[in-house]
Amino acid sequence: MLHIPSLMEGLDVYKALASEVRIEIICLLLENNSMNMNELANHLKIANSALTYHIKMLEECGLIVVSNELEGHGNQKKCSVCEDKILIDIHTKKERKDVYQTSIKVGHYTDYLVCPTCGLATRTALLGEVDDIRYFAHPGRYSADILWFTQGYVEYVIPAFIPDGQRITQISFSMELGSEAPGFNNLWPSDISFIFNEKKCAVWTSPGDLGGVRGTFTPEWWYDNWGQYGILKVLTINEQGTFMDGVLVSDVTINEFALDYMSMLKLRLEVPEDAEHVGGLTIFGKGFGNYNQDIEVSINYKPIVEE
User: What is this structure's pTM?
Assistant: First the structure.
């Protein structure tokens, strides 16, 4: 998949696709898996010089790949499409001076207690054996881009390098989450608790361990019969209360924690054994799911005013 992180960065792609001939080239390559230059020129009824121009535009923006292969008495250039999707981020966030932003890899938890089924993986391979809780303590876990467990928790310490003399007025967490069922099960509810600095702030019921359709960013080696993607959830704690996706879910406010530039911040994601729906938890990081992000954190702050 070709990911374009902003509108302006995709200009070469837009220009390459703004041609009926180049669109037809892509369709032909998809239909035939791959074709050489002579085959394309004959099918399109255009000169080789004109075809070379169109192929160069498509190749330079990463939509097709051209390789040399021996055929008959010489080399022949063979063309094939190398991307199956194009994702464009239209909205990009502007940096603010009074907001500290950071991200945490899925495997960077500082404490855990999990029960099988469970496991971890990077975007290229599984970490150790599935359903073996010992691998949650493996040093390689820091590279994990996805983790899952049936019951228990993982806890993260949040880096918050805000300027001296500031107090925290809001903290937001954005993450892609789902349940954990053997294989996948789209109807597998799980009550996931969000515990900030040892206080439960919210509970969200995940509808299932979602699969059946491959996640937009889920790697090809990932098993088809495993969960593929989650749901993007945004937890915000501010002076008005705790919000999930912009909806007030509890009266826990940021003021109750009295946080400043020296405070330690911890977030625990837990499926407790006494929950109504003990359906597990999957956390999707970069390279998995539909959002290609780690756990994103945004912290608003302002100067401490002495009374």
Answer: 0.75
